[in-house]
Records
---
Amino acid sequence: MILSLNWLKDFVDVTDVDVKKFCDDMTHTGSKVEQFELLGEEIQNVKVGLIEKIEQHPDAERLVICQVNAGEKTIQIVTAAKNVFEGALVPVCYCPDGEKRVAKLAGGMEIKTGKLRGVLSEGMFCSIAELGLDLHDMPGAPTDGILILNDIVECKPGDDICDVLKMRDTAVEFEITPNRPDCLSVIGLAREAAVTFDRNLTIPAPVIKGAGGDLRDYVSVSIESDKCSRYCAKVVKNVKIAPSPLWMRMRLRAAGVRPINNIVDITNYVMIEYGQPMHAFDYACLDGSHITVRTAEDGEIFKTLDNTDRTLSSDMLVIADSKKPVGIAGVMGGANSEIKDDTATVVFESACFDGASVRITAKKLGMRTESSSRFEKGLDCENCMGAVERACQLVELLGAGEVVGGTIDVYPVKKPLATVAFEPEKINRFLGIFLSPDEMKKTLEKLEFKVEGSVITVPSFRDDVRCMNDVAEEVVRIYGYNNIASSSIVASMTQGGMSDSRVFREEMSDLLCGLGLNEIYSFSFIPARLYTKCGMAEDDVRRKSVEIANPFGEDTKTMRTTSIPSMLEVLDLNSSRNAKSASLYEMAKVFIPRENVVTNIHGLEGTLPDERIKISIGFYGAGDFFRMKGICEEILKKAGIKTAKYVANQSDPTFHPGRCADIVLGDTVLGTFGELHPVVAENYTFSCPVYVAELDLALIFENSSLEKEYTPLPKFPAVTRDFSLVCDEETEVGTLEETMRMGGVKILENITLFDVYRGSQLPTGKKSVSFSVTLRSPDHTLTVEEADKATKKILGALEHNLGVTIRS
Amino acid sequence: MKELLEKIWQSALAAIESGNDAESLRIRFLGKKGELTAVLRGMGALSPEERPKMGQLVNEMREKIENAIAEKAAKEKEEALKNKLLSEKIDVTLPGNDLSVGHRHPIAETEKMMRDIFIGMGFSVVEGPEVEYDYYNFEALNLPKNHPARDTQDTFYITDNILLRSQTSPVQVRAMENSKPPIRIISPGRVYRADPADATHSPIFHQCEGLVVDKGITMGDLKGVLELFAKKMFGEDTRIRFRPHHFPFTEPSAEVDVSCWECGGKGCRLCKGEGWIEILGAGMVHPFVLSNCGIDPNVYSGFAFGMGIERVALCRFGIDDLRLLYENDVRFLEQF
């Protein structure tokens, strides 16, 4: 909402308040000012000049030399303009004292004294564009010539052009919150200003002389829907369509509205002044004399004022004559009844439509208008009549037509005024302030609430006030939010903190940082093509994703089911920017669609997806498969998971089939990691192998054992035995270790791999694997015999189960 | 005899002087076959009266030589140590080993700072789903379908009644449904709005909202908590300012500015000359919201507040483009 301060002065006098203070104080009482603009400020030293004499330029056929009376002195201007004549009053831009002061035009252009073809020219005549105006602001003005003022305004040489054209104003832009549609009007803001600056508010009631007659001879109205709570109308005859006067055009311009013609301008003027959208339509276009407010028919086609065909549906409200709609209620009028230059009789409509209905209609038709955006917030029925009367008053003021006697006011159910309990003590306690009931009462009454005893009657334009909290806000915004003293909560003690799972997540993050990984944050939605890019097959179950119904483009459409595509994109970005290495992790949420199984307490339809946090890890140029495995091992160690196994995964299409492992605990796969499949890697810019991992945080947490218990330090020495085994290339080291443990040797403390050898000394297809085995008893020093016996048992298990023997 | 001792002493001194090592000196002069031992052996030829005297002299000399040799040995050791240390000298300006500790993301850093402050004030951290029912994101928060205030948040929808949460407030609704007052929670988390990404907007960002519900909670308490938070977060001299505003789920509602930590409120580039930076939205929980969640507004009152984590992160770290946070260039990440 842009407010013209000139306009505001019609209702409240704040002329002595500095603009900055006006804006600050209004903001602090609840009408937030976004910015203000001093209109006419950028135009400097443009005066009215009277052209007294015109001579031909001696050296230029197209130029003339004008002697111009500019008030304080006569100056000489050389111009190429063709529409100047002796006796013309024109805007002239010049520096009154030569070079000292600068003359400026709209857009910041500066004008100085100069010579044109050898002849002194002390300034420049202005066209409307140079004053920042267009044909809507100055109808009939020449666009390719100088603005001639003689027939437009009364003025004399030396007058300031901004004053003459009423361009000087201050436009203050407010951010009005949706609960205060009453403030989308000059009167509403005047009311706020009057309270803020403790001034008197004067809202004169419109006075109409009237031209007699009875508008019932012209039109009648009936409402056939409960979505229209009131419909007021007046008829104006003998209309003369013309531009509206300069003052009205300039006020509309300051408010950001483009002037059209007197009737249309009046509807806009009233909308801005009263906050009540108005509609004017040409009486001649009505079929019959009866107007009905009814719901549209499904599929009904209707051409709106903007010349677009709209397909209506039965949940939309239209204003119709006996045969056709003439307007979509609260949204836009129809092309069929538009005010034209030859319109002779006008019907003014000032009605109140249901907010939600207007909102749905406007949204469905994709046409949010100034009118609909006001109606959807819920307007005051009581405002309709004043607005239409104001429009008629303006018609008479402008001489735009004759107002037919009588009024149409269809108002089926007058809405009673709401009441709220007046509870000053409760308000004080709630806000933590100490205001007397009288002070509160005074504030509320200035805001036009009626306070009688313990009952507050809410004015009709304040539908937003419904309970104690609302009243408290009214009181405190005028008292000053910043006058509330800060206090400490006096209440029950609470123990702050995080859930165990959240603490675990933070600890995991710290661990991963400690292992040299940088944390990333990536978007939770991805373009579906990234599934293909990371190698997923067309029928991969992970492609079944939660999809956004109203995305803007593919990139924000698919909620990811895996964190790997995001990680690869980030690694790729760094690689493409020539980072030699990158080591990254993310606590990445993924969204797995769920069947309709979960019930909720409100019986809400639909099932929310399973949201899981994945530990996503990726790196390149900084280690190999075993760095990744080391990281995974540290994660499990941190979680106290001791029995997980690493099982080769040869089927995940994202990974190298020979360099990928699942982390398996019992029947549960905790995660997968490995080297990116070389074919997949070709989809990116990588120049070295890339390793990625995805582990399920919740599964790890569920299986974690975080309790720590002290194991006494060993009191007796250990015995170590080293041996090398020869086995088939396919035999995994993990299997060998597992088999050794199967030997049932209680004193087996630890098995450490220290070498894997392949070479000419061995038969083809065989490898040698060397282990160091630590044996220890908790209660005595082992004898050589005991150690030998244990070793034999271990080797026996290997031979018996795998046929693996010691290397000779 | 005396002369002989004197001669030995002199030759010992000369030997020490000439740089023989301590051990060989000890052997030569004090050892079993050493020169002094030889003197002692020759004492048999002396008279019984002279013997003790001479013995004493020899012992004195032994001590003298021993001391001299020990002194020599100490010097040698010192010298050796000095040489060793000298040879072990390193160029301390050489770079340290690259241990490559990773960095938390600036959003995580900022969230942690906020979390720690509120945990210190007795707040619990709660989380909730990001794909959420319309009911929790809007309806329970006094924003029925077709409420015009829904337009202020462009929302991504999955179905008609499931959406990507546009605020973390649904977590508060769930918390109020699931627990009885006293409630003192914050709900940091990820939210979604259909805003295309630019330097100051992102379709995904993070909020940290807070909620307190108990008997006798006042708007003064809200100011108290936020003032304390602002001082801890932005520095002890920070002041806060409330401006009336409207949120459907709080009444009264306020936008909260903190005094600019860069200029202290005088006005600078960071605060665009205002002296204040808008950080928070806050207000007293709307009684309709309390009753929607099964809490009697006649018995309990409460306040809620919320802020954008990215906004605070950008201001605090002087980052001029929000998109950098989601781009994850390692040169960016390693600065935090």
Note: Residues 140 and 292 of chain B are 6 Å apart (CA to CA).
---
Amino acid sequence: MSRAQPPKRWRPIVVGLLTMAGFLLTFVVPFLFIFLQAVKDRRAANKLDFTWPDSWHLWENIVAVVQTRDYILLLAYFNSIVITVGAVTLLVIFASMVGYVLSRRRSRLNGFVMALVLAGLMIPPAVVPTIWVLQGLTLFKTIHGMILIQVAYGLSFSILLYRAFIAGIPRELDEAALIDGAKPWQIFFRVVLPLLRPVTVTNIVVQSIGIFNDFTNPLYYLPGRENVTVQLTLFNFQSQFSTQYNLLFTNILLITIPPLIVFIFFNRQIVAGMTAGAVKG
Amino acid sequence: MSGLILAGVEKAFGAVQVIKGIDLTVNPGEFCVFVGPSGCGKSTLLRMIAGLEGVSAGAISIGGTDVTWAEPSERGIAMVFQSYALYPHMSVRDNIGFGLSLARVPKDQIAEKVNQAAELLQLTALLDRKPKALSGGQRQRVAIGRAIVRDPAVFLFDEPLSNLDASLRAQMRLELTDLHARLGATMIYVTHDQVEAMTMADKIVVLNAGRIEQVGRPMDLYRAPATPFVAGFIGSPRMNLYTGELARAEGCVTYGIRPEHLTLVAQGGKWQGTVRFVERLGPDAMVHLHVAGLGDMTVRTSGEIALSTGDETGIMPQEGREHRFAD
Amino acid sequence: MTAPRRKSPYPSWFFVPAAVVYGTLFLLPTVASLWFSLTRWDLFTATYIGLDNFRQFFSEPFLVSSIGKTLIYAGLTSGLKTILGLLLAVLLVSPIIWRGMLRTIVFFPVLVSTVGVGITFTTMMHPTKGIINVLLESLGIDGPGWLTDPSLALFSVVLVDVWKGVGLATVIYMAGLVSISQDYYEASRIDGATRFQQFWRITLPLVWPATVTVVTLSLISGLRFFELIWAMTRGGPGFSSDVVASVIYKQYQAGFYGLATAGNVVLFSLIALLILPLTWWFNTREVEA
């Protein structure tokens, strides 16, 4: 006969410790490696080993990376921030408008629009024809062309987030505003949009990180030295710094910092956004 | 002051006919209550008057103007929703003044009107709060305030008390009646609660399955219900209604008698019943009886009545209080 | 009397700004790709050459093999992310110490620059000096040339991809797991189910929507994936780790625009052929559940 056993108090501690050990080895060591490489001098870094530095050179390295190729990293930061801010602003406005009508109106058009939205999540962009279209519009190799590309590629995800959230806002609010004499655009911008703040924060954070980290699209659509973005500096430095691992990893460190900061402040919204739809009822 | 006229109003959602031809006149200054069971179309009818639902056939006019196809904001109506629909991101002051600010009314005029409404509804101390920080009754009053500042020809209320608890509901009934008396405005009020209808209305419209069953003053409906449906819906406890042999003997299709119009007698009586149980409410008691060959019957008596389950008693209807329906 | 049209409070013009951008920069190129894939094209003049691009695509061994490698890559990353994601999620919703911190650690790589991760791991996977092989050597194991051995390079990239992406699968599964009512577990305990039975008979079926999301998302991104491969191997050594997406870029760089576009059409068809039946199958499963 089996006896009831007392709860094992040591279990959460042991499992937690073991998991932490595994995570430190797999997930933390690579980040630590980046940091160690970034603080070493050139000779020490080129050994590529996982050892504590003999001497600290972080500031020197940062200055050297920033000064490389005539301060190209600062230009890249500027470009990346302009693209990210511009694209995310447009995404929030455009996607919330579509999500709102999609969620509120019963119409045959909706099925068609939803099919396009899902296609946008699935279909890989046709690169060369896109360049052809951008050239036709004289948007190729321009920052605003890049912004519009990021908007086009990000719309589907944002629309789905907004649509799901708006379904939870009572329709009576729209009707009250309608009776109060609000025009359709006033109902949306003065009554509904302010209520979308939580999902808008999620959208801004998730899309910003995605666009800031994007490498492929600037590689295709934004060639040219003056148009460089942060991810491309990394790529360019990879060959230039092939014997200066300290600078290469200082660069990685500098590029990893913005998402890290965003993550610290918006951890909850990021996870909420990325898991949206996974547990639909 | 303005009245409302509905002429042959119909509404169909696809093949489903929800409102089946309504003709109704609401006089200026009247408090008119639409009452009926859920699904009878009363809320749809109200939303059609507001312009939130289109009309399939017929015409609506408010204050002598045809508004059948007018935008909701151009009909001279104001509406208080069941959920109050207060804008959560705006203060009480901005909620009440929102419609005026959309109409580009000058700021000082808005402030004046908002303050007047707030005073009328005792909201002055709460003007800078957000709806989240208000109690149910206070939210209700803000919703009414938002309606008042529009100076509407007709106020529309969609089950505004159903989200409140019982004691608050009784208090709000009095407040609304009082408000109607002070404003003298035309009000249309939708509810499924016949107590609200009886206590507040100048005119009750009983709706059933998309049609008007009867229109009249509360006591008229109570005294002379036109159909068994109205008889069963208006008045509490419910009227005793019988079809079959008794009705045939009385020369009608349905025979009805209210519990308060029956008297228990020791001897004789029209019927003999066995007490099933006695509900004692204090001032009075509901005696639930079984009458052989007829079925269940409820009688309202004095609270002190000395009867208990199993007792036999005679039952006598009061003179002139019997109802005989032809359907 | 005919009813005048009432203006909807939800006007169609709200679609317009999004539709203009999406239509010109996504839909138009996608539709145009069907035509340009049938041409010899230098961005200015396109000469119709029928199916020659596709014929070439399917006759060059390194191009054909990129399709197989794409499938292997997508299948492996998707499978590993799903299994590891579920296991990690079960671990991280159970009552253990440092739970919050562990969740943060596993998710952080998702947000980090892919190119940065690629370069870091390329360095760590250096055949002689990289810390992975140095560690293995100290344990007496002769570490392989992770990225220099043609038979291994693709799988090394798969491992890094899983390392970076498993956090997303984990949080999706965690959201799915916490939405399962505790009542089921209590009811089944009274029925005498073991922990193992609970996992198979309750957790797994009820976490199905999360599984659908994880598998679909990771498959689509696996099929389209480019950044990590480009940062780590450029498709090498030789063509050993070339996938369709990297082939497209190489053809584009070389100026074979028609061929690159044909590659795009191939990739598009590949995704549609895999995802549409899969989604359909997932949906029928969901109805049964």
Note: Residues 70-275 of chain A form a domain with the MetI-like fold fold (CATH 1.10.3720.10).
